[in-house]
Design goal:
By secondary structure, this protein is of the alpha/beta class. The protein has two domains: about 150 residues, no CATH class; about 230 residues, 3-Layer(aba) Sandwich (Rossmann fold), CATH 3.40.50. It is built from nine helices and 15 strands. A six-stranded mixed β-sheet has the order 11-8-7-12-13-14, with helices on both faces. Strands 4-3-5-6-15 form a five-stranded antiparallel β-sheet, covered by helices on one side. A two-stranded antiparallel ribbon has the order 1-2. Helix 7 links the parallel strand 12 and strand 13. It starts with a helix and ends with a strand. The relative contact order is 0.11.
């Protein structure tokens, strides 16, 4: 028994001795692999840091240029912003020559192409290069790694047409009931109320006017590159001295957002008449967004509001918004406001219309919710794209 134990011990010692040369041969390979992996990871980290730095510098320079219209000021601001980041453990100093200003145009595939020196200036290109020592620099001749990144920041243009319901129901109060007028209109008979301008404080039109005013205020506060147009719709209606057109282009695309408020107030001073032809309003908006007044480089948007079901004209609103998206690259946001539009099949159809138009859907039951819907849309519009 003891002889067998001694034999096993000698055999184990021989095996152990045989492993030493194997370990000695493979260890350099393992160390080399570890060193290579560490260097590769560090290189990737440096590329990421440089990308973030150039992106932030380009965006900062573009925003500053929009506020100051000074390229030198924009470059200084871009440099100061990039100094807040580190690349390879050191602050990166981007040279002035690394900043270029120009114009980016939107292609049919949605991509933007930058042209340095072109006007009007809506883009900034930033190029930067960084060199840093590698953690295990002895593995390569100079022990350092150099990489370059180029970032583009483009100020996005927006052409927006508001398509708003001005049918007779927009003079009703904010309840879901039909033919119920605000208290300051109940002094009249229902027929008199119908042919009287909407309440300036408690009607659906008054709530819509306040929400639109808030919308254009947000656009101005965000300093967006935006043009806004206004279309209203109802139906062709005539009775004695009273009349209404099916749809009207009340304001062509303009940078003067105050004129939108003026047009809203003008409709608020007249009786709102007739039924609801949503398709007629959408057709005018689509025509305006593809007219000579629209900009080929701008994102096209329709904001559709209704408080009722489409009663005349083409009632397949989801089909229309789908065709505008595919045929004219128009995004359609939809807001339903009280009344018939708030529930049931009408709300479902309008939600589908928003989905088909690649837009957002809001169902506003109150004036506060209506204002929030318009503000959410304004806040969602991109000011700057960084690539």
């Amino acid at each position: 028994m003891r002889s067998r134990q001694l034999h096993n011990q000698r055999l184990a010692l021989r095996r152990h001795g045989a492993m030493i040369p194997v370990v000695a041969l493979t260890m350099p390979i393992v160390i080399l692999f570890i060193g290579y992996s560490v260097n590769i990871a560090y290189m990737q980290l440096m590329r990421t840091e440089l990308r973030l730095t150039t992106d932030s510098a380009a965006k900062a320079a573009l925003v500053n240029f929009g506020a100051t219209n000074s390229q030198s000021s924009a470059v200084a601001f871009g440099k100061a912003t990039s100094a807040n980041n580190k690349v390879g453990g050191a602050v990166l100093s981007i040279p002035t020559s690394g900043f270029k200003f120009g114009n980016s145009t939107k292609q049919s595939n949605g991509a933007y192409v930058f042209n340095a020196g072109a006007t009007p200036v809506n883009s900034v290109q930033v190029t930067a290069t960084a060199t840093t020592a590698l953690p295990i620099g002895s593995m390569i001749p100079n022990g350092t790694f150099t990489c370059s990144k180029t970032a583009y920041a483009t100020r996005v243009s927006h052409d927006i047409v508001l398509v708003l319901d001005r049918s007779a129901s927009m003079a009703f109060d904010l309840s879901s009931s039909e033919f119920v007028y605000p208290p300051d209109r109940t002094l009249f008979s229902p027929l008199q109320s119908y042919f009287t301008p909407p309440s300036p404080t408690a009607s659906r039109w008054a709530a819509l006017t306040a929400a639109v005013n808030s919308f254009v205020t947000v656009l101005q506060a965000r300093n967006l590159d935006v043009k806004v147009g206004l279309v209203t719709y109802a139906e062709d209606y005539s009775l004695g001295q009273y009349s209404s057109t099916v749809a009207s282009l009340d304001k062509t695309l303009t940078t003067s957002t105050s004129s939108i408020t003026t047009a809203m107030n003008a409709w608020g001073a007249t009786p709102l008449l007739g039924d609801t032809n949503i398709a007629a309003g959408l057709a005018l908006a689509q025509a305006e967004l593809t007219s000579s007044r629209a900009r080929s480089t701008a994102d096209r948007t329709i904001i559709l509001l209704t408080d009722g079901v489409a009663t005349t004209g083409n009632t397949n609103i989801p089909g229309l918004t789908s065709s505008y998206r595919t045929g004219s690259s128009i995004v359609t946001h939809v807001i339903t406001f009280g009344g018939e539009a708030a529930t049931g099949s009408v709300a479902t159809s309008m939600q589908t219309a928003a989905q088909n138009g690649n837009g957002m859907f809001f169902n506003a039951a109150t004036a506060a919710q209506l204002q929030a819907a318009f503000q959410n849309i304004a806040d969602s519009l991109p000011a700057v794209l960084v690539n």
